[in-house]
């Protein structure tokens, strides 16, 4: 007997566009809504990537102890409430292999791509590899936002360009919760006739794939193939509008977005927009719209209102305060950015889902591009993971890599999410050993 | 007055720059194997956002609201157009293209006023498919959008799509609208996919076919696809004859649309797309809002069009001209009186303006589109401006900073000793590893220090007079006007223009195999008196412009298709 709601719909209506009530919803849910009683499935794991440029101050964050009984130093002390959920990784390297540091580019490439690309072609960013495993059935394979303005993020597919990022919360709201959103908990489901018609029309474009590919060379074919992959994602989104989604009790789509700040780097605007993005990403996850997201926190224009200098400029030009032993304004920005991330964690942790919170099924990867931005160092780079992705990872440890490439973290995270790879990265940044302390 | 500088350029960091310069300015360094032009491999190119907008305007009119933004393209070889030949469409980008296609097709076919213009037939029944009427609409529109006639199979597919959608929606126009939307989302529209044929003038060689030639010509000269007349010429073989081809070139060069092409080129070369993400602190620069950012771009583009197209002047004069166009908002930033011809409270109009001879502003380097664009949100940066001059206008590459460069020299903006940015930079440059980089960027930028981060004139910084003296490649200057003249006379300026415009025309970066063509164009540009229209004509009438090499094809289509399907 077919017990799924999809099967019910197909069997009853054959996809025709009529409204149908879904009276059997409760019988499929257990008490907490954590799992679908009919299938016994847990809520799926989620990967989030938070890329914060410019790092931390050396000497102010690496704990003196490794293992589980470590004590955070001043710049990470605000993460104490989540210490049991965090893995803090120190001592990692971004290896240059004789290549020059392209400031705030090379570190990003090694952190996200596993190495410094040679030529135009490069591999996928690790979030894309993870999305290929856990995100294929999502409406949005990844969601990419920036809290600080800009057009491109840190996510890309193999051989492709960097994905554009959404800098406007209002635009992201329209994209996720606009007219094409299907509420998984609606009492009635009405398949969209327009989606049905549009899917039919787009299939005509898809059918031209073979003819189009025949006319181009190998490099163009790879690019056009990416086009057709994106087209299939669009078709999949349409198909999702034709079938009733699984109920998700924690999903409560926001009625509107609220007033956003003009995208940019001014700190109050960043705070406002990150707050809005946080809510949207949480709703996107709880409503089953995505399982992978990227948040890029750039710093080039990050500044206080009325200030002639920005964070990036301060790292280069601010003198070290003799009494303090660090750059005070730069450090203000570091602490401010850390506060934004803790705000993000707090919201995730206080958003109920199932028996716990939405953070329970996430693993967040916090990365940065330099060990010490003031001198562009590529050693002792800070990396953090938060959450265990529904039990896929062990947490609560300070792990010292002792000069190993940071790509060991990326390899570990990918393997934890089920990416079938035994190695990740290139040249000296190639990692072949995951961090076993993190894996279950 | 300017004179050769006595100071010695820091050798270590000049090496990279000299190597770049040698490649472009010393033709004798060209190896003999590269003295014959080898046609580049054909590549598909995605429409840039601006090309998309113009294509829609061409076919459906400027009143169609695109209502959104499109996936941006990353710059390569200094140009977005070159970057467009190596990007695809991401999933997020596809959503944007799809939403825009829906918005356009709905306006074209679901709004009565527009439908009457674009749809000459009526369906037999408004709720039933009508293949004949659908074909009458889709075939000509498709030809304009795809820049070639639709194949029989393509037309049949889109007509069938319209019929299927009509049945689902119970509305012919809604169904046809969806089919048009699919056309606007299809790779044949979003990508320029060149087709090649045997070149009758070169045994064993290839060239673009007539429709691909028309497209390359049109995108270069007009920044959009071929119009109906050019498509007709391609269809009827006129482009195959020298006479017919030159007639079309003459027509296109004489068209007012040439201005659109020239604007698009400079918009790309001068990186005006980066205004989209530029921000200025309103507390520090209250006069410089989004509106002034748009005006700043327009000022420069109007100046260039006037000077280079209308007046047919030497390109290098763009760096010294006192003539420009201003709005009252820009005049406020430039602190000059502007006779406003429009009514009080009306829309701000553009007025021609000539800066007085003694005014420190001359040429496009003094425009806010340069001084503000290449400044951080809250201050100036001589380094950023100098780097932009080197990279954007001289096609030179400033070496990347060495690993673990030390920034240990005081750069405190509140430093009571080093009050001006010059003083702070000099202090910074006492570190040898910093000095090399800054030596090739800062002097030109320091000459523009009289213009603050929003382009407004100033004489002092933190109470100290600003010193604007410096040198560029051995030529000294004492202020921005002398810098303008030194830049104008630098051979890298016209050479860079040739490089940018030629790669822009081809839509792809040149390898060593094609660089002999750059040399030819440099000579012709100089012979023409550095006239931009002449360079454009020279490029398009060169046989090399349409020559192509077949794409390498190591992968079998069947294998690839089977793997993905």
Walkthrough of the structure:
- The complex is a heterodimer of chains A (440) and B (565).
- Chain A has 440 residues and is of the alpha/beta class.
- Helices cover 31% and strands 13% of the residues of chain A.
- The longest helix of chain A is centred in the middle third of the chain and has 23 residues.
- The N terminus of chain A is likely disordered.
- Helix content of chain B is 49%, strand content 5%.
- In chain B, the strands form five sheets. In chain B, strands 3-4-11 form a three-stranded antiparallel sheet. Chain B has a two-stranded antiparallel sheet with strand order 1-2. Chain B has a two-stranded antiparallel ribbon with strand order 5-6.
- Chain B folds into three domains: 241 residues, no CATH class; 148 residues, no CATH class; 66 residues, no CATH class.
- At the A-B interface, strand 6, helix 5, helix 6, helix 7 and helix 9 of A face helix 4, helix 7, helix 8, helix 9 and helix 25 of B.
Tell me about the largest β-sheet of chain B. Answer: 3 strands, antiparallel
Helix content of chain B: 40-55%
Percent in strands of chain A: 5-15%
User: Into how many domains do the coordinates of chain A divide?
Assistant: 1
Read across the widest sheet of chain B, the strand sequence of neighbours is 3-4-11
- Content of β-strand of chain B: 5-15%
Mind telling me which CATH architecture of chain A this is?
3-Layer(aba) Sandwich
- By secondary-structure content and strand pairing, the structural class of chain B works out as mainly alpha
Number of strands of chain A: 13
Lateral strand order in the biggest sheet of chain A:
4-8-2-11-12-3-13
Mean pLDDT of chain A: 86
The first-level CATH class name of chain A = Alpha Beta
Chains forming the largest contact: A-B, 83 and 81 residues
Radius of gyration of chain B: 26 Å
- Counting copies of identical and different chains, the oligomeric state is heterodimer
CATH topology of chain A: Alkaline Phosphatase, subunit A
Regions with little confidence, pLDDT below 50 for 5+ residues of chain B: 5-32, 406-413, 554-565
Mean pLDDT metric of chain B = 85
* Major β-sheet profile of chain A: 7 strands, mixed
Q: pLDDT under 50 segments of chain A (min length 5)?
A: 1-18, 20-40
End-to-end separation of chain B: 70 Å
């Amino acid at each position: 007997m077919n017990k799924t709601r999809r099967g019910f719909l197909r069997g009853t209506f054959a996809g025709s566009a009529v409204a149908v009530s879904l009276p059997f919803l409760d019988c499929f849910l257990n008490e907490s809504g954590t799992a679908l009683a009919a299938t016994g499935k847990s809520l799926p794991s989620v990967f989030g990537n938070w890329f914060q440029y410019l790092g931390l101050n050396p000497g102010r964050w690496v704990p003196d102890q490794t293992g589980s009984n470590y004590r955070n130093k001043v710049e990470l002390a605000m993460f104490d409430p989540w210490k049991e959920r965090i893995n803090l990784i120190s001592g990692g390297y971004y290896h240059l292999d004789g290549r020059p540091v392209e400031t705030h580019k090379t570190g990003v490439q090694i952190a996200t791509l596993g190495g410094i690309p040679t030529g135009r072609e490069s591999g996928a960013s690790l979030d894309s590899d993870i999305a290929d495993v856990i995100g294929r059935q999502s409406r949005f394979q990844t969601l990419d936002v920036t809290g600080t303005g800009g057009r491109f993020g840190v996510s890309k597919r193999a051989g492709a360009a960097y994905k554009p990022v959404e800098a406007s919360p209002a635009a992201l709201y329209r994209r996720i919760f606009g007219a094409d959103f299907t509420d998984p908990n609606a009492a009635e489901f009405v398949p969209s006739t327009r989606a049905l018609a549009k899917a039919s029309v787009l299939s005509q474009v898809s059918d031209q794939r073979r003819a189009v590919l025949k006319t181009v060379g190998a490099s163009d074919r790879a690019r056009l193939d990416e086009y057709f992959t994106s087209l299939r994602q669009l078709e999949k989104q349409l198909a999702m509008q034709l079938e009733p989604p699984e109920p998700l009790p924690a999903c409560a789509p926001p009625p509107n977005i609220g007033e956003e700040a003009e995208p940019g780097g001014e700190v109050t605007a960043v705070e406002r927009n990150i707050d809005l993005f946080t809510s949207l990403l949480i709703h996107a996850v709880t409503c089953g719209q995505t399982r992978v997201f990227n948040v890029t926190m750039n710093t080039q224009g990050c500044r206080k209102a009325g200030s002639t200098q920005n964070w990036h400029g301060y790292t280069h030009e601010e003198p070290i305060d003799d009494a303090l032993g660090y750059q005070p304004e730069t450090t203000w920005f570091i602490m401010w950015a850390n506060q934004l991330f803790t705000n993000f964690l707090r919201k995730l942790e206080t958003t109920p889902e199932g028996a716990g919170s939405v953070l329970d099924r996430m693993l967040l990867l916090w990365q940065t591009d330099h060990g010490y931005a003031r001198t562009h160092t590529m050693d002792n780079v800070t990396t953090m993971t938060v959450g265990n992705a529904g039990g896929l990872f062990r947490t609560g440890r300070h792990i010292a890599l002792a000069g190993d490439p940071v790509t060991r973290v990326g390899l570990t995270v990918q393997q934890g999410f089920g990416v079938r790879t035994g190695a990740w990265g290139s040249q000296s940044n190639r990692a072949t050993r995951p961090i076993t302390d993190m894996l279950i | 007055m300017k004179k050769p500088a006595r100071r010695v350029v820091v050798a270590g960091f000049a090496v990279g720059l000299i190597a770049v310069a040698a490649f472009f300015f010393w033709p004798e360094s060209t190896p003999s194997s590269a003295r014959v032009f080898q046609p580049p491999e054909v590549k598909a190119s995605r429409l840039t956002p601006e090309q998309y907008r113009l294509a829609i305007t061409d076919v459906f009119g400027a009143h169609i609201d695109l209502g959104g933004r499109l996936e941006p393209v990353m710059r390569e070889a200094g140009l977005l157009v070159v970057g467009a030949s190596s990007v695809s469409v991401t999933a997020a980008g596809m959503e944007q293209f799809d939403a825009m296609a829906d918005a356009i097709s709905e306006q074209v076919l679901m709004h009565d006023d527009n439908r009457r213009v674009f749809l000459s037939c009526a369906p037999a029944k408004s709720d039933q498919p009508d293949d004949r009427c659908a074909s009458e609409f889709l075939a000509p529109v498709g030809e304009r959008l795809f820049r070639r006639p639709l194949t029989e199979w393509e037309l049949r597919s889109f007509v069938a799509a319209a019929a299927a959608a009509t049945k689902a929606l119970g509305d012919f126009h809604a169904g046809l609208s969806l089919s048009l939307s699919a056309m606007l989302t299809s790779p044949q529209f979003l990508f320029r996919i060149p087709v090649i044929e045997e070149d009758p003038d070169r045994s064993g060689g290839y060239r673009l076919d007539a429709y691909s030639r028309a497209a390359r010509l049109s995108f270069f000269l007009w920044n959009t696809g071929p119009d109906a007349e050019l498509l007709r010429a391609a269809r009827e073989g006129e482009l195959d004859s020298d006479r017919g081809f030159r007639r079309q070139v003459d027509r296109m060069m004489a068209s007012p649309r040439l201005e659109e092409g020239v604007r698009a080129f400079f918009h790309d070369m001068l990186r005006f797309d980066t205004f989209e993400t530029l921000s200025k602190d309103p507390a520090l620069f209250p006069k410089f809002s989004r509106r002034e950012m748009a005006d700043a771009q327009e000022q420069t583009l109007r100046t260039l069009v006037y000077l280079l197209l209308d007046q047919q002047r030497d390109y290098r004069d763009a760096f010294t001209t006192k003539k420009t166009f201003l709005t009252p908002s820009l005049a406020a930033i430039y602190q000059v009186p502007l006779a406003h011809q429009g009514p009080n409270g009306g829309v701000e109009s553009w007025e021609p303006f000539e800066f007085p001879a003694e005014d420190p502003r001359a040429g496009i380097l003094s425009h806010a589109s340069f001084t503000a664009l290449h400044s951080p949100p809250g201050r100036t940066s001589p380094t950023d401006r100098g780097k932009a001059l080197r990279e954007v206008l001289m096609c030179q590459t400033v070496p990347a900073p060495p690993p673990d460069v030390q920034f240990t020299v005081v750069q405190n903006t509140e430093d009571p000793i080093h009050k001006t940015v010059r003083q702070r930079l000099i202090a910074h440059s006492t570190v040898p590893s910093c000095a090399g980089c800054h030596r090739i960027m800062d002097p030109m930028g320091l000459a523009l220090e009289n213009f603050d981060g929003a382009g407004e004139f100033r004489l002092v910084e933190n109470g100290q007079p600003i010193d604007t003296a410096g040198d560029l490649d051995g030529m000294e200057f004492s202020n921005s006007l002398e810098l303008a003249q030194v830049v104008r006379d630098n051979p890298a300026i016209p050479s860079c223009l040739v490089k940018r415009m030629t790669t822009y025309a081809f839509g792809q970066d040149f390898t060593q195999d094609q660089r002999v063509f750059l040399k030819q164009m440099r000579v012709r540009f100089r012979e023409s008196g550095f006239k931009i229209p002449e360079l454009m004509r020279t490029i398009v009438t060169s046989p090399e412009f349409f020559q192509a090499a077949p794409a390498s094809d190591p992968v079998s289509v069947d294998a690839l298709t089977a793997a993905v399907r």
